[in-house]
């Protein structure tokens, strides 16, 4: 079965890596092709993750870059279609809810190619979030919907998705985290930043609703400045946020604004933090697994299990509320009391996904019949040969 994986933005990389590794164990069943849309292209948003996650070089790099949401989605559609026609995959695998995910789903639907959606069914019920629209459309167009938590299955059934398409497999992002933790422990990032375990908070912000509105951003910054009087704050700044922050805030000794970190350094940073303050989706899940208190700067979350587990709480976007909530966390015990992890967040989600896909795999003959131009397995180099750059990818447009 010829499988095409599509990645584009930072949160995609850790979702696809464990699936690629599992599929490699069945070389007679799966022939894999990796396409990078280029939605994220800075070294520290993309190449650093390929290196840390030992992802193979992409076979194809589309170089779609930044722009308006429609422009970015449209450029991805146009660039992706000929690649799907050329490689003729039997199945396309895509993760999450970014614009590259939506574009992939649309191309598959137009070409009649089966689509597997990793992390299906999550819903914030807030359609002003671009990701919510991406999730709904992608799920409607998917043939295999792999879910991470019980709420996702309920949402999909409510939207009329055929229950036979839904597979509760757990969380592949946690697979990556479990694999990477031993390596992350060796990271020197804390020493480099002058930080000590449990004595700092980590902040990440990138949602347009938080960073593009100067009033909201000023509320958050006021809270961070107030908190930095009591505890060190380390803030790896996303490129979108950097644009807005430049005129507003500067690093101080207690509030450090730094460039985005790679996967292993960031994992070391979060796993030793006193708390995390974020608007990211993935970080709500990672902190739940790591049992680190997380405050989410949003009115809603599509990942309710993180709230149910007691690690995550939603915080109103007012300086006084953010500060009060963080001070309450600081007054609590260092870590969330040991509790069970969400069901199936055990590092084995990719195995379950690959089991499902093996059971429907048509032997290699299908790809050969469709005129595969390369011999099976020639696409992927071993992880040890993986390169941080994409020099050997066929660059379609840059
Ligand atoms: C995207 C995803 C979001 C995900 C986030 C993780 C969508 C709709 N949003 O948001 O769900 O949580 O990625 O980061 O797909 N930029 C750079 N270099 C890069 C990438 C981006 O400078 O490598 C800058 C550009 O100015 C760009 C802006 O960041 O316009 C936003 O990038 P974009 O991919 O449009 O969305 P994100 O905010 O990163």
Fold and architecture overview:
It is a single chain. This protein is an alpha/beta fold and 398 residues long. The protein has two domains: 2-170 and 344-397, Rossmann fold; 179-331, Rossmann fold (3-Layer(aba) Sandwich), CATH 3.40.50. The protein has helices spanning 10-24, 43-52, 69-87, 99-111, 130-140, 150-158, 172-185, 189-193, 208-211, 214-227, 239-245, 263-271, 282-290, 305-308, 319-331, 349-360, 365-369; strands at 2-7, 31-36, 60-61, 91-95, 114-118, 144-147, 166-168, 200-204, 232-236, 255-258, 275-278, 294-296, 312-314, 394-395. α4 (99-111) packs parallel to α5. It is globular, with a radius of gyration of 21 Å. The two termini are 30 Å apart. Residues 364-388 have low confidence and may be disordered. Bound molecules: uridine-diphosphate-N-acetylglucosamine. Uridine-diphosphate-N-acetylglucosamine is lined by residues 9-11, 39-42, 45, 66, 69, 72, 97-99, 130-131, 206, 238-240.
Short description:
The chain contains 17 helices and 14 strands.
Helix content: 40-55%
**What would you call the quaternary organization?**
single chain
**Principal-axis shape:** globular
Strand content: 5-15%
How many discrete domains?
2
Reading off the top of the CATH hierarchy, the class of the largest domain is best stated as Alpha Beta
Unreliable stretches:
364-388
What do we call the CATH topology of the largest domain? Rossmann fold
**DSSP strand tally:** 14
Q: How would you state the average pLDDT, rounded?
A: 91
Query: What value does the Rg take, in angstroms?
Result: 21 Å
What is the CATH homologous superfamily assignment of the largest domain?
A: Glycogen Phosphorylase B
The CATH architecture of the largest domain is: 3-Layer(aba) Sandwich
Biggest sheet strand order reads 7-6-5-4-1-2-3-14
The set of bound ligands, ions and cofactors reads: uridine-diphosphate-N-acetylglucosamine
Number of helices in the DSSP assignment:
17
* Largest pleated sheet: 8 strands, parallel
Question: Between the first and last Cα atoms, what is the distance in angstroms?
Answer: 30 Å
| Derived structural class | alpha/beta
